[in-house]
Amino acid sequence: MIFAFGDCEIDCDRRELRRDGAPIRVEPQVFDVLVQLIRHRNRVVSKDELMQAVWKGRVVSEDTVTSRVGAARRAVGDSGGRQQLIRTVPRRGFRFVGELREPAGDPCNTAAATPSVARLPVADTGMQQQISFCRTFDGVHLAVASVGSGRSGKSAGTSSRQRIGVGRKNSSANWET
Q1: CA of 151: how far to CAs of 48, 83, 136, in Å?
Q2: Cβ-based neighbour number of residue 127 at 10 Å
Q3: Which of 31, 94, 124, 158 is spaced 20 to 30 A from 1 at the CA atom?
Q4: Angle at which helices 47-55 and 28-39 pack, to 10 degrees?
Q5: What's the DSSP call for residue 72?
Q6: Are 111 and 135 spatial neighbours (Cβ–Cβ below 8 Å)?
Q7: DSSP per-residue string spanning 126-153
Q8: pTM
Q9: Measured between alpha carbons, how far is residue 17 from residues 92, 100, 117, 118 in Å?
């Protein structure tokens, strides 16, 4: 999974941060803090949640978390004063507020380009339901279900393709429509 924003790209699979195409060396905990904030960018991430996700329950001080967030800001060209990418929400935690974009290069290297597909018979209709599962470039899981051949008119009989559902996997790993 690659997240791109500003002049930065984060490649989660390679555990690599790049600015203007050049690799930036960051400590593993700083990388993990940054990825955790980006993955949960739609909400504030508390210090306790960062401690659990990054330090896996080991006891660390709040100063340690704040220090790693500061290092993450510096690594992506942000600061505590500007807070253009990582915003502090007083007494609540931190939130990634940068705008993600599709990474440059071949779009076929994203997970969204290779959806998985299931075809299931629809009882007593002779038609098949097709369910496609994919993940967008920014990590949103999608499921799209359709039924029929997509043809209409006399030559197609009664079969026609209809979109019957679109769902999205929420942060609790449950599907919602």
Answers
A1: 54, 52, 28
A2: 17
A3: 94
A4: 130
A5: H
A6: yes
A7: S-EEEEEEEE-TTS-EEEEEEES-S--S
A8: 0.60
A9: 26, 14, 32, 35
Q: Rounded to whole angstroms, what are the CA distances from 113 to 60, 107, 141?
A: 40, 7, 13
DSSP assigned state of 162 = E
Query: How is domain 2-101 classified at the architecture level of CATH?
Result: Orthogonal Bundle (1.10)
Q: Is the Cβ–Cβ distance between 76 and 6 less than 8 Å? A: yes
Label the pairing between strands 116-121 and 22-24.
Answer: unpaired
pLDDT in tens, 50-61: 999 999 989 899
Characterize the bridge pairing of strands 175-176 and 162-169. antiparallel
The DSSP secondary-structure symbol of 48 reads H
3-state helix, strand, coil in the chain (%, to 5): 25, 30, 45
